[in-house]
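pasting NVEALA domain-containing protein for the record, 76 residues
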Amino acid sequence: MKKKKMIGLLIVAVAILTGWHYSQSHEVQLSELALENVEALASCEVEGWMTGYYHVTLFGDCMWTCRKGGPNKCPI
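structre below
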């Protein structure tokens, strides 16, 4: 029984070391397109939400209008 526990512990230790080595040796390289997408998404951040519920109409590049009486919160 003691031998089985030692073998199991050895297998777990090897798996942990293998995973750690893999994570240390692989860098993620983002393409130019991916970096541009991140920039575009970050440029449309919302600072907060208006109280109440509104009909929100989106007009593309981070532009919207809000009319009272809808099911959504309106971004500020």
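The first strand starts at residue 54 and ends at 58.
The chain has one domain: 2-68.
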